[in-house]
Amino acid sequence: MVGTERALPRAPSGAHRVHLLSILRPKLGRPRLTTGQLITRVVFTLTGLAIALGIYFGSRWFLGLCYEVEAIGPLLCRRLLDLVLLVLLSVLLLSNVVTALSSFFLARDLELLVPAPLPPRSFFTARFMEQLVQSSWMVLAFGLPTLLAFATVAGGGRTYVAILLTVPPLLIYPAAAGFLVALLLVSYLPAARVRDLVVGLIFVAFLVIYLLIRLAQPERLLNPDGFASLVNLLTSLSGSSTILLPSHWTTAVIAATFRDAPTGTSGGLAVLMGVTLWCGAGACHALASGMFRLLHGRAISRTQEGRTVAHLSRLWAWIRRRPLPRDGDIRAPQRRAPGADPLRWVGYLVPRGPIREFLVKDLKLLLRDASQWSQLVLLLALVFVYLYNFRHFRQIGESGLIGRFTLFLVGMGLSGFVTTAVSVRFAFPLISLEGRMMWLLRSAPLDGRQVLWSKLFATLPPLLLVAEVMSVASSLILGASNGMVLLGAAVSALTAVSVCSLSIGLGAALPDYRAESAAKVAASFGGMVCMSVAMLVALSLVGLAVYPAWVINTHVPLRLPRLLFCIGGALTLSAVAVVLPLMLGSRTLARHEP
Amino acid sequence: MMIDDRHPPKRGAEAPVLELRGVHKRYGAFDAVQGIDLEVGRGEVFGFLGPNGAGKTTTLRMVTGLLRPTSGTIRVSGHDVVHASIEARRRIGFISDRPFLYDKLTGGEFLRFVGGLWGMSPAAIEAAAERWMDRFDMLGWIGEPIESYSHGMRQRVLLCSALIHQPSLLVMDEPMVGLDPRGSSRLKQVVRELADEHGMSVVLSTHTLDVVEQVCDTVAIIHRGRIVADGTLDQVQSGGPGRSGKHRRLEQIFLELTAGQEAHGGD
Question: Could you tell me which of A255, A571, B36, B115 has the fewest CB atoms within 10 Å of its CB?
């Protein structure tokens, strides 16, 4: 029918609201939970509540000490509030960038929603709300107790109201900024790579913040001699440079309600700051919405074009003098010469076979996934911080408060706990992560045992290294005798072997093939079961080391039956912890029907 | 290249490469496959047809050892896929209908991994990987990460991975999905060559009846878990073995035999 056009149905009034709900409905629906998931949620909620309460009471105690400082107490609290809000804002910004990338550019339902005749405003509002909630709830859950502690210590009823009025608009700034940063990034770089990069940067940022806080030694606040330098630090951190930030305006409003409000926090100024905060939030939202209408279509298009060569890629290709593939050209014009394989050393260490293949493959996947290696960096930093803090134990031992023997056992227990946590985080998810590739592993000429052994061989050496470094270093820091150091090393080795095998075996016996990330697998019901069993094994091994350690430490006459019981018990326990889970996992794997 | 659309089956005195006897698969109260008997000879291309939810994928996944039959036996070159599964799997190349690959590996690295699982030497892997990637126009992409591949390119890498260890039985579940006409034509050529020149047996399931007519020697139509027609293409099209009925189009026969089918949401 040339010249005529079929009349499109008109959108009914209130379509905007209808569409908004339609987009959000799948997210709001209550999924059916299995018993395991329900238990996991309850345990996690209770743990979260306990942590939030811990933060509240810890902050209240610390702020109470600060507030009592003569003359500068209220000013110190205001500075601290400014600092806390600035940190919250920074964390929220990073969190929002990642969430914006996921919800606006990488979400699976975009293929359904983008071609749908949705008003752009509805689409943006729905996604923006989703992003805001997803990226803020956890930060808020642990940040809000600190703010409430400020209200309890320095303020009163009005402070709670001020917090209630200023926190919602404060959340909009990082959400809008996060969206704009994400929009800008995906205009020039592939969205998936950007997300990996940002996740990596977040971990590095957390690491730097944590190390800075640890190295600043905030516990020095308890020592009056350390005050001058700390006040200087706080002043420099929340000085005039942050006056243009919404965290500063929020501080101004909340601090104005403090009992002993410092000078310069008049009610009029607070109201002005509050109005600025709300207006600014509205402006940010409007700016983000406008930019969405302007650029989102183009950006979405870029994310769909897997091989599209963006501007930076063109520059990179030019630098490498490599011809660019054209869209629709299936044959790349020039084959890239294979570079030296950085993992070829594995070939010298492990004989040819499935174990080597898995080892090489798993190492490559680990090194190429920013969300994985960044956590590895974080882990190494935690080990460093653990050892850095362990020297305080030596001081405690020297003071005679707790005996060196007890400290040695505490050190072994802590080392076992860290080894277990690392094992559950990195080894337990390995089988679950193969979920989508199970069609290949099950159709290959391998049996389940080979798959499990290959995973064990891939994870045991680094875990053993971490456990031994922690054990030997902490024993040396404590000034333990050579015999104690050797005993600690032996217990750590048995712990590493046992918990690693437990993690691999139970990872296959209680898998979560639907989980999208290793972190989610580790946090699943199976992960919790594994953590509990592995902790029990680790503590039992420490328990069996008590008698030999006592003999070495006190030089009392050795009773051979007791020693044999301890050694035999430890070896039997380790053997059972290695063999039983692997058998269980292998059997489950053989029955699994992908 | 035009492909000859009539290929006589090569069954003789030789033992079949694939043999199914009374194979049954039950999911809870639902019988997905009910007593299937099949034979595929050396160098034979076997087409497995059926509507959605008829039991095609279930049968093929049982052949590859991914699913265990509730009852019945499946043998690949004489090796039971349940009791001698490693030996049976060593002889199979499988192309899944859900082509998930390791996104962070390159095409070459993925093929090296697969070849290693099948116990090939590095030199043999390199040679076979180059040969097959070149055959499917993917050699230029061998060093690129799989996450940058399109759906069709992933399907080609999957084909290379199934062929790299020179299986005696190639099982393909919907192999044409995602391939462009050139890729599809290349695959049909390769399948015929593998069967005619290398004696490889091929079992493929597809909804594209033209592919069956062009490539397959024998065909079976599965409906509600049961084989409702099987034999050479000529036999099926003429109404059964020994009949000299009117030669009809496969589509017409398929629609008649599977009339009243209600999809169960899977194969």
Answer: A571
Burial string for A30-39 (b: 16+ CB within 10 Å, else e) reads eeeeeeeeee
Whether the pLDDT of residue A520 is over 50: the answer is yes
Query: Distance between CA atoms of A482 and A489, rounded to whole angstroms?
Result: 10
- Cβ–Cβ gap A445/B116 under 8 Å: no
Query: Which residues in chain B have their CB less than 8 angstroms from residue A332's CB?
Result: 140-141, 144
CB of B87 less than 8 A from some CB of A:
yes
Q: What is the pLDDT of residues A37-47, one digit of tens each?
A: 677 778 778 88
Which residues from chain B sit within 8 angstroms of residue A307, using beta carbons? 148, 150
| Other Cβ atoms closer than 10 A to A370 | 18
Kindly list the residues from chain A whose CB atom is less than 8 angstroms away from the CB atom of residue B102.
361, 365, 437
Contact B66 A338 (CB under 8 A): no
Q: Report domain extents, chain A.
A: 35-304, 345-591
CB A68 within 8 A of CB A222: no
Residues of A in contact with B118 (CB under 8 A): 444-445
Contact B93, B171 (CB under 8 A): yes
How far is C-alpha A185 from the geometric centre of its chain's CA atoms?
22
**Strand arrangement, sheet containing B79-80:** B30-40, B18-27, B71-76, B79-80
- Check CB contact of B137 with chain A, cutoff 8 Å: yes
Domains and CATH numbers, chain B: 12-91+168-178+198-256 (3.40.50.300)
Q: Is-above-0.90 flag for pTM?
A: no
Gyration radius from chain A CA atoms: 29
Is A365 close to B90, i.e. CB distance below 8 A?
A: no
| Spatial separation of the C-alpha atoms in residues A194 and A189, rounded to whole Å | 7
Name the amino acid, one letter, at A63: L
